[in-house]
Specification:
This is Nitronate monooxygenase. The chain has 353 residues and is an alpha/beta fold. It has 16 helices and eleven strands. The radius of gyration is 19 Å and the shape is globular.
Amino acid sequence: MSTLRTALTELVGVEHPVVQTGMGWVAGPRLVAGTANAGGLGILASATMTYEELEAAVAKTKTLTDKPFGVNIRADATDAPQRIDLLIRENVRVASFALAPKQELIAKLKDAGVVVIPSIGAAKHAKKVASWGADAVIVQGGEGGGHTGPVATTLLLPSVLDAVDIPVVAAGGFYDGRGLAAALAYGAAGVAMGTRFLLTQESTVPDSVKQEYLARGLQDTTVSRKVDGMPHRVLNTELVTSLEHSGNVRGLVAAARNASKFKAMTGMKWSTLVRDGLAMKKSSDRTWQQIIMAANTPMLLKAGLVEGNTHAGVLASGQVVGLLDDLPTCKDLIDGIVADAIKRIDALGALRA
């Protein structure tokens, strides 16, 4: 089949300008390898993994594919330097970050030949990481799932493209060839998708939960601050509705309980959790209440996305969920998107008099 060569495919060495985002509890070795073998860039989610689990996940992914893939790291994690050493040692192609990594971390990765692609939510943040040496950025508009901002992709994307001269990957609302063609027309180097890849055959999310997503419409997501104190786009569920109507005290009690569960699950010491909280406070403008509530997120997402308990868990989702009605393989998904994008680009060219 025909392919699209962009600054992203050249930079990373993948066949197609399509990225599968590093979704916590979702983007494991099977999904990442499925994306990579289909010619896209798959990104492992390490924020919900211990260091040992990440080490095992990287090794497993390498047994399933010999294509380039990436790992998403929490830049403010206490053990971020150790995780970066692991990426370098294992020759992982891409380091992806949900928050801006320190300048010295970017330099260390680049010196080792690792491509650095932070996710950002504003033009000023793109300019900052570009000045620090980031190779590209992923920019997610408000339509996207999980942590998201208030500005739609159609406005956020051009503002970032005008601000930097490194490759920009568009996220938030993408799921088909029309979206890829549109992003490329804006000047983006590719698209990144989360919800669309969550709803594939290689995704390990329980089938019952996938059906929950497929049953939803365009109005069936909410941007809630009650999950972890930050704007978080999730599916409407009974739990989300009750959280939205709960008081701050109830939310803090639930957060503290979930923090204790997360500590037990990961084997983290309380001192490590506190140190991570202090680092988060220093690197952002979050209140202490928001930081305590952030401990909620891993356990609430795990309950829904891993254990299939939609009553006790939270299901992160982009608005695009309302337009999805199938569970393709990663190969069928990416092949279809690229083929359709090429047709639409050709059709646009035919409009010229």
